[in-house]
Write a structure and sequence with these properties.
Distance between the termini: 91 Å
Strand content: under 5%
Number of helices: 8
Number of strands: 0
Helix content: 55-70%
Radius of gyration: 32 Å
Shape: elongated
Largest sheet: none
Structural class: mainly alpha
Order of helices and strands: HHHHHHHH
């Protein structure tokens, strides 16, 4: 049954199964083939139904065995993604309160540029923070005052005698 079922697969289904065997997900396969990820899923689901197996991976292994691809062969020409040394080390963003420390100028500078990432002095940064706090508090007080005024106007209209 497996040989007859494999003959029923279209070339598009075979291509998707080959890419599944090469450890690509539906989104990657869609980019390679030039179709939508849902179309990839439909092709693979139909191939799984034709072959009478339970998963896409079993179907991909069946096709690979039929085509004589060894499990140990390199199935793609893409390099293996290994983490770089920098991505495996901790960054400043991993630390708690890193943004506050950076704004205040007490966090170590990150990046390799010659120019400063934040040209403000510590006093200027502190002034910016105080100004932001003041603006936020004033705007929230204004909003509360507006709400209270609107509420009292609405209450006055409800309790006013009809003319």
């Amino acid at each position: 049954m497996a040989r007859g079922a494999l003959d029923q697969l279209t070339e598009a289904q075979r291509e998707c199964l080959r890419l599944v065997y090469a450890h690509h997900n539906s989104k990657e396969i869609a980019e390679i083939v030039g179709i939508s990820p849902s179309a990839v899923d439909k092709r693979i689901e139909r191939a799984v139904q034709i072959l009478g197996v339970t998963t896409r991976f079993v179907a991909a292994r069946m096709l690979a065995a039929e085509e004589g691809v060894s499990a140990y062969e390199q199935t793609t020409s893409e390099p293996i993604d290994l983490p770089t040394e920098r991505s495996s080390s901790r960054t400043a963003a991993d630390e708690p309160w890193w943004l506050v420390r950076r704004l205040l100028g007490i966090a170590p500078a990150t990046g390799g540029g010659d120019e400063a990432r934040n040209p403000l002095t510590k006093a200027q940064r502190l002034g910016v923070i105080v100004a932001l706090i003041f603006l936020i508090s004033m705007s929230s007080m204004a909003l509360l005052n507006l709400g209270q005024t609107l509420s009292s106007l609405a209450h006055a209209q409800r309790t006013a005698p009809a003319r």
